[in-house]
Amino acid sequence: MKKFLALLAFSSLLFVSCLSDDAQPPVFEVPTPPAINFTSGEADFSKFVSVGNSLTAGFSDNALFMEGQTNSFPNMMASSFAQVGGGAFTIPFMADNLGGATLGGQPILGNRLFLSFASGSPLPTPVSGTGSTEISSVLSGPFNNMGVPGAKSFHLLAPGYGNVAGVPIGAANPYYARMASSPNATVLGDAAGQAPTFFSLWIGNNDILSFATSGGLGVDQQGNFDPSTYGGTDITDPNVFAQTYNGILQTLTAGGAKGVIANIPDVTSIPYFTTVPHNPIPLDAATAGAVNTAYAAYNGGLAQLQQLGVISAEEVARRTISFSEGATNAAVIIDEDLTDLTSFNPALINMRQATADDLMVLVGLSFIGTLADPNNPASVNGVGVPLGDQWVLTPEEQASVSQALSAYNETIAAAAATFDLAFVDANAFLKELKAGGFPLNDGTTVTATFGTGGGFSLDGVHPSPRGYALLANKFLEEIENKYGATLPEVEPEAFTGVYIE
């Protein structure tokens, strides 16, 4: 309609310009667009509860803070639901917009990030100041937004997940501690206890994300059915995930509530893994020559073991280290999947240069190229000192992530059919965002490009407010499709793509 009216206005001007001075231009009546009758369809939004992790909470720029919580996609959805009978939507707000928090006066959570140019190039940097959120100050609930940053699927069922009293820092979730109905409550119990008429569930991202963002430091726990034995960066067994996920939905739908669920995006396609190249190291000819001389013994040792039949020519080629003059030298990394040669020669550690198949983590922006030892100019991280496992996700580690992702998403798709729920393909949504982005009515396009694309916040993992708005509309679209509702859309242009200091 907007395009039609614009053309109509242009043709009217053209017609007037051809008239004589005495002629009167015709009067065109612009039709009034029909009013939209918003309806809830088969859904009842009077008590909407949203369950999930940091993505549900409105986490962005590496922190949870008041403005980000206000711009969470469930809160945007609740604003739409309010037009068709939706009730109040309460949020367990942090105390300020810094995002940092203390426990017993001791800082345990850092502040949100902003784009600092202090170093001469833009780097995500924590804002200054001390956050005024005290974790031990428990809020009075219940809360409609039950998004708990850091939560994995099985955490939603864990009694005492928010009980930080008398336990070491990190042993319980500080975000849930502020909103739990009691020290031994469960996230699911607090959500279901509100008797929701409609719910959203987006959980499972952290069951693989923490493994990926740690550079694969954790363990793929496939075959281990006891999540109490898992480490914080481990991948959840797909059977554990399936049993947990279906159990959550059985509880949420027990009272007849309808809802919407979303699958898990490919975490390796987010800016956290697509921003730092594998070859970011500039060297002049003299430095490149000196570095190659330093690695000559390592390369020679590999060749000797090939001659002895210990390793193949292919592995020697993969492990041989060579630098050259130029700006695109590949970083040297540790790779635990290489053949262990240290029993033959302790100097032949599992290292090689990165390739385009390796994914460097975003925090490497401020690490690669720095000195491991300030007094040793040869100790450049990624050159003279190999990058540790936490700085790169290798192809083998990516395969573990991909395998778990496929299994989880099969479970979620099947659950949508079993429980007759609306389903959001968040994986396809992120692929589209990365491939070309989403054009907006103001002429801009939201993409997944770090820092400038407008879709992601500065932590490279969580969406920006504008990205959350696009997600909210995707959720609303699938709710309309499933339940025959007609709901107001969110206007992404009304939300920022990056917070400006």
Automatic annotation (TrEMBL):
Annotated protein name in UniProt: G-D-S-L family lipolytic protein
Record GO terms (molecular function): hydrolase activity, acting on ester bonds
Keyword Cell inner membrane: no
Keywords, ordered alphabetically: Signal
Secretion signal, residue range per the UniProt entry: 1-23
Pfam families hit by this protein: Lipase_GDSL (PF00657)
